[in-house]
């Protein structure tokens, strides 16, 4: 009862009063000061914990973004590669359509799996199981590349024209002919004949020899295989004549030929399969 009376008396004294007595002020200041001292370090700790949590979240987000970016870069590179491969295959298809209209040959497309710069050879992913044999001609969309020299069950080694100087002897030359189309041949086609015997590593050009003195071959003429040799079938484009000059003793002439094919960036090539009938005529 005394407490209730005291409580009512205090309410009556403080009701409607906005000023504080000095004990109330002292108590208020003391409590506020103490709360301030406790709030600052507590707020710092809470803020630090919140920053650490945010940093962890940002780290996880950055990790996800890096993974996404890596996948995007990988997918973009793969897409570009597929687009380039698709273009090469489309060009290859156009090549085979053109060639099939000219000759009764079969062109087996193969991927280059290895390039041996020292021996001037490439390895392709076709072999005996695919009907590939030694001495078959190999070409790209642009022109003659070389010939098959070794065959395993699933792969074959191809000697490039750039290695002719080290592997070709007098009994294994490449018989070629020139289909004269330049105006210097009086405006009509005239057959020429010679041998591609070597490759000049300095000029990156083929050397054609055994050209007769009266041969009308001139710079600008296109060199194609004649089919009169023992290896290459007739009609495969080799290159374009760059220069013609006198050979030894002035009896025959020599021509330098710029090959059509690029030997440094081979991705897909074609193995030329000649029908068995008439193989002796075209070989």
TrEMBL record:
Asked whether the keyword ATP-binding is assigned, the reply is no
- Could you tell me which residue ranges the Rod shape-determining protein MreC beta-barrel core domain spans? 115-273
Q: Which GO terms describe its biological process?
A: regulation of cell shape
Per UniProt, which keywords does this protein have? Cell shape, Coiled coil
Q: Where does this protein have coiled-coil stretches?
A: 65-99
Give any Gene Ontology cellular component: plasma membrane
Q: Is Coiled coil there in the keyword field?
A: yes
Under InterPro entries, the record lists: MreC (IPR007221), MreC_beta-barrel_core (IPR055342)
From what superkingdom does this record's organism come?
A: Bacteria
Briefly, what is this protein's role?
Answer: Involved in formation and maintenance of cell shape.
Family from the record = Belongs to the MreC family.
Which PANTHER family does the UniProt entry name for this protein? CELL SHAPE-DETERMINING PROTEIN MREC
Q: Which named protein is this?
A: Cell shape-determining protein MreC
- Which organism is this protein's natural source? Paenibacillus solanacearum
Cite the source lineage.
Bacteria, Bacillati, Bacillota, Bacilli, Bacillales
Q: Which gene encodes it?
A: mreC
